Amino acid sequence: MGASAAVERVVIVGAGVAGVTTAATLRLRGYSGTVLLLDRGDFTYDRPPLSKDFLSGTSSRADISLYSPEWFAEHDIDYLPNTEVSSIDTEQLAVETAHGRMAADWIVLAMGGEAFHPDWLPRDSQRVHTLRTVGDAERLRASLTDETRLLVVGAGLLGAEIALTARTLGAIVSTVDPNPTPLADAVGSRLAAWLLDQLGVQGIAHRTVSVEKVSDMGESLQINFSDGEWQEFDHLVVAVGLEPVTNLAIAAGLTAHTGVQVDSGQRTSHPQILAVGDCAALRTESGFVSPAGHWEAAKLTGERAADNILGLDPAAHVTAWFWSDRGDLHLDVIGRLPETEQIVERGEFGSETFSLGGFSQGKLVAAASVNDPLSNRHLRKIIDRGHHITPEQFADPETM
Question: 26: helix, coil or strand?
Answer without folding.
Answer: helix
